[in-house]
Amino acid sequence: MFMVSAAIVLVMFLLNHLPSTFVRADDKLIRQVCHNSEAPTTCNQCVKADKRSDNANTVGIAKIVVDCIKFQANNLQTNISALASIYKDDVAANRTITQCQKLFSHAKSDLNTATQDLKNGNYDASDKSVFNALLYQNSCKTQFENNPKIKITPHIYYGFNIFEKLSQIALRIIDRL
């Protein structure tokens, strides 16, 4: 009976320590993939915040980064929508805000396509979709910059910056697949 108990304790001890070994291997892959990006800290934060990162391969890491971009797109669209009430009496500002909301809808659609293309192994199409989403975001940002009446909040500027960084990270990862 003692031998069986000792064996069970030994097996439990070994099994308890195996996941940390696997996590270290995943952390190594995450560090390697993110190190090759232009913003490794942003990449690491995005990937490690997702529970799927524990078992992710390089394609999985790319999918996680695309999901981080989608999250940023949603945040930007929400923050931009909040500007509509501030500028409800300004036709030109409202036009810009409405156009940006549409651009982010297109960007999110392209990001959904990018995720699907990654799942299907169509990396060139995924790369193109992420690039198109970045173009939509840049178009919105340019429209705001060209309309000095609209005061952009720091949250929106920060969101644009993170969206761009994450897009560059995703493009770099996908290019290497």
UniProtKB/TrEMBL annotation:
Instruction: Extract the CDD domains matched here.
Output: PMEI
Pfam families the record matches: PMEI
Source species of the chain: Papaver atlanticum
GO MF annotations for this entry? pectinesterase inhibitor activity
**Protein name as annotated:** Pectinesterase inhibitor domain-containing protein
What are the alphabetically sorted keywords of the record?
Answer: Disulfide bond, Signal
Signal peptide segment = 1-25
Which InterPro entries does the entry mention?
Invertase/methylesterase_inhib, PCW_Enzyme_Inhibitor, Pectinesterase_inhib_dom, PMEI_plant
- Domain Pectinesterase inhibitor, first and last residues per copy: 25-173
Hey, which family's this protein in?
Belongs to the PMEI family.
